[in-house]
Amino acid sequence: MRWRKSTYSGGVNDEQCVELGRLGGGVGVRDSKDVAGGHIRVSLGEFAGVLDVLKRRGRGSLGT
Fold first, then answer.
1. Residue 30: count of CB within 10 angstroms of its CB
2. Is 64 a domain residue?
3. 62 band by pLDDT with thresholds 50, 70 and 90
4. Which tens digit of pLDDT belongs to each residue from 23-34?
5. Residue 63 falls within a domain, yes or no?
6. What positions does the domain DUF397 occupy (predicted)?
7. Considering the entire predicted model, what is its pTM?
8. What pLDDT is stored for residue 50 in this prediction?
9. Which of 20, 31, 34, 63 has minimal CB crowding within 10 Å?
């Protein structure tokens, strides 16, 4: 699988780096600082929902 770093990641010293990878029927998400730690898989619909929340709340904000 080919992973790519999120454009929201700020660089080498960023504590919150995320990488994404295309999986059959979904998206893999992993911590770029701990690539051996595995990944989570979300459906395309679930991932679209996360993106929608980010767009509505502002860049980098998943909090309530």
1. 19
2. no
3. low
4. 988 999 998 888
5. no
6. 2-53
7. 0.69
8. 87
9. 63
Q: What gap in Å lies between CA 21 and CA 39, rounded to an integer?
A: 9
| 20, 50 Cβ separation under 8 angstroms | no
Name residue, tokens 């770093």. 5
What sign does the dihedral 6-7-8-10 (CA atoms) show? positive
* The residue type at 53: V
Structure tokens at 44: 């395309």
Q: Does 62 fall in a domain?
A: no
Q: Are 25 and 43 in contact (CB under 8 A)?
A: yes
Rg from Cα positions in the chain? 12
Segment (H or E) for 53:
helix 44-57
- Total number of domains in the chain: 1
